[in-house]
Each structure stands twice: as C-alpha cells, then as structure tokens.
Amino acid sequence: MKLMWRDLKSKKxxxxxxxxxxxxxxxxxxxxxxxxxxxxxxxxxxWFTFLTQTIEPYSDYKIWYQTFVRQALxxxxxxxxxxxxxxxxEAEWYHFWFIENEDLFLNFIYPPFLFYILILPSFINIELVxxxxxxxxxxxxxxxxxxxxNIFSQKVAExxxxxxALNPLYIFYSGGLALNTSLITFFFVLSLYFISTNRxxxxxxxxxxxxxxxxxxxxxxxxxxxxxxxxSVSDKYESSFYQYLKKLIIYSGILIIILFIGSLxxxxxxxxxxxxxxxxxxxRLPTLLPPFRFPYPHYNYPIFWYDFLYSLKAxxxxxWFFGFLNFTYIGIVSLEIVVIFMLIYWHNKNVLNWVxxxxxxxxxxxxxxxxxxxxxxxxxxxxxxxxxVLWICFHFGYRLSxxxxxxxxxxxxxxxxxxxxxLLPRIYYLILIWGVFFYILKKNRFLTKKLFNxxxxxxNSIIF
Length: 464
Description:
Elements: H1 2-35, H2 46-55, H3 60-74, E1 84-86, E2 104-106, H4 112-122, H5 131-149, H6 154-165, H7 168-176, H8 181-196, H9 200-211, H10 221-234, H11 241-262, H12 266-269, H13 271-280, H14 316-327, H15 330-348, H16 354-370, H17 384-402, H18 404-423, H19 429-463
Antiparallel strand pairs: 1-2
C-alpha cells in the first residue's frame, strides 16, 4: 500500500511537470502567432538584431507550414509538382537576403510525411496545423519515461522525464515555435526504443518514418543497420558471412521498401523533381574544389562550426582549411566509416552492447551536425535534448537512483547549458557543441577502458 501511494504521488509530480511544460509551450506559441513580433521588427532595430543573431526564432510555422497547407487546400498546389508561392509582406524577414516587394517562388524541400501530417488537421481548420507538432512534443517525455522504466528504476525514469520536459531547447524551439524537430525527435526516439528491446523490424519502420519527415536522419542509417546485423547474428549459436549478409539485405531491404512506399506517388509521377526537392536542394553536391568565397552567415543563413573565424578576421585559406571536411563531405564519410569500424571492432571484442551502440548514436548525432555540408540552424539542436538525457541515464543511472541531489544538479546544469546555448551569438554557439562532444567522448573513453579491463579479467579467469 505504501509503495502504491509513492507511485501515485510520483505520477502526480510528473503530471504537474508536464502541465507546466505544456503551458509554457502554448503560451510562447500563442504570443508568437498573435503578435507576429519577429517579422514586424525593422532590420536595423537592436532588438531584432539580438533575436536574429542569438536565439533565431524562425517563423517557419507561419511562413512555410501554414503556407503550403493553405495553398494545397485552396489553390490546388501539390508538392514536387508546383512551385510554392510565399507572399513577401507576410515574410518580411526574407528581405534580409531576398528581393523586396515581390513574391517568393520556392521548391517544397521536405519529405512527403511532413506534408501529410500537417494537412490532416487542416481539413478541420487550417489554424490546427500546429496540433501534430505540439502533440509529438508533449508525448516525448512520456516516451522517454517508458524507455527508461524498462531498463532502470522508477527514479531514473522520472529524472529522464523531468530533464526532458523542462529543457529550454525542447520547450522553445519544438514547442513554442512549433518547428518540425518535434516530429523527427519523437519518431527517432521510438526507433531507438525498439532497438533497445531487440524489435529490429519495428525500429526500421520508425527510422524510415523519421527520414520521411526530415532527410538529415539518413546519417544514422549505417550505424543502426550494422548494429542490428551484428546483434541479430551474434545471438545465434553459429555465425557466418552468409548470415551477416542475409541480415544486411533484409534490414536494408525493409528500409528501402518503406522509403519507396512513403515516397509514392511523387517518386513515380515526377522522380527528378522529387529527388531534387528532397535531396539536392537540401544537401549540395560534394566537391574537392574550395568554394568561391565563404559568405558571412546573416540571419536565415545556416551556420558552420568554423564561422567563428569571422570574428578573428581570418583569411580565405584559413576558412578553407577548417571547412575542408564540410564542403568535401569527407567529414561525413569518415564519420560513417569510423562508426561502422568501431561497431565491428567492439563486436569482435565481445563488448558490443546496447550502451556501446548508444555511444555510437551520440557520436553520429554530434559530428553529423557539425560536419553537415549545408550548415545548421540553432533549432536543430532541440533534437539533442532527449538523446543527451538518455546518454546520462545509460551511463550514470546508478548515481541517479541513489543520489537525489546529483540528479537535481545535472538537471540544473543541462538547463543552464541550454540557456547559454540559446543566448550565444550565432557564429559562436557551435564551439559549445564541440565542448559538450569532447566531454562526452572523454567520459566514454574512461568507461570503455573499464569495460575492456573487465572483459579481459573475465576472459583470463575462464582460461585459468
């Protein structure tokens, strides 16, 4: 009875935290939608400059999402077949880098599932386009709780729930601004959850769904499929190259089939436009030749990690040297090769488990964004929130279970780092991402060394 009361009391606490989080998200969303405050600020006003050069409160929901839904419903517009027309007076922030007093004609650059999920509630009312975006964001802490409760104690699951629900990046960008990161984060975490329970087919399905919401998730395909292949074959009594190849073909085939089905009918009706819109307009073609110039990343331009060199007035060759891994794709390709090698190496050493695989996911998360050839925006990094929370739980779950003050301190540190991240100027904030990455790498190396030592001791004890 006492245990039941504690459980009920705990759930009430979590419900209260979630309600507070939802209220803040909805409040931010309503303020932005009603006032349209960002687009009405003159370009030369200090407040506008502060917002655009630090927090980056983009109006994608109003300018992009509602526009393509409205034109699909009332103007017979279709993605990949027709050009999207954006009215400039409704998007004044585009004046910063586009022409003035004319409409903008742009391609639809998202995969089809974003179009489908946003247009569904608009059949009731176009003002309800935000529902899927907010709903998936609200459900994310619940998924994290379920994820952790299957592995750890109640305390760890509660910590993960609270650390996610109260994170400023999660609240502001995915909730308040209603950006598409809520969708990809939610479905990607579900994919990881099914991997952790060895339900690989379901995981592949949700991974494909995530990619059909946003293309950037493609960088996770190699490590996820390789881990599934190694894990599924190693569980059998005998293994052979044929079995590994068979599993690789099966899992890759499932992914390709789902991606193909999800791309219908566009990939058949207009394959060139579909590929160009979904891939070529988002990811520029790799080249070994240096760019003609490295333009200053004004508002609405993506950021690269080496853009801090502008403040140092670095010459062209310095930019070329630091940006080489980005514009040639060598950084991304090297990342994929290295993580596959690490998975196979750990598998051969009999230390490849869920936690080691999750370390690979963390490395891929950080480095794929830092080396992304197109550059990134600040709101992309709300995707990091649940992944870092899970990393802390998987590596330090015991401390979270037995040290309440330690858990509270970590939540405060995560919140503080998130706020600092939001307030850092655009050309500097990726340096903080490098810092967090190296901290995680250092911790993982220490924990890996302990794991290898334990495995070595166990092996020697068996021999003798």
